[in-house]
Design brief:
128 residues; mainly alpha; 5 helices
Length: 128
Amino acid sequence: MGNNIKDKATNLTLKQKQLVDTIVTTGCSITKGAETAGYSKGESGRVVASRTLRLPHVQKYMLQCVANTLGVGAGLASNKLLQLATGARSEYVQLQSCIDILDRTGFKAPEKHQHQVVGDVKVHIDLS
């Protein structure tokens, strides 16, 4: 397949799509992602891949991929938080997990502020 064939859903070339998919799924460097996606080896491949990642349509696709990955991770994270709240050995960890769950579900305790007045306060009311 040629490098100029575009993915209809993303409007990216297959090489651009593979570059983004590799970087997002593995967390590798641009250099490693460029090599995996078939860009030239070495500095020139990294430079071309870096320029590619700055293209608006490539950035848009990358943000979508990252959002999808974080969405899956959020499910795992919330499950772990529930496990800690119910099964952690430390009561402190259980408490902090419960507080975090409550905060994230809209039951955050009001923040307390302390106001301190320094000096004398005088009030004069003239009712005449």
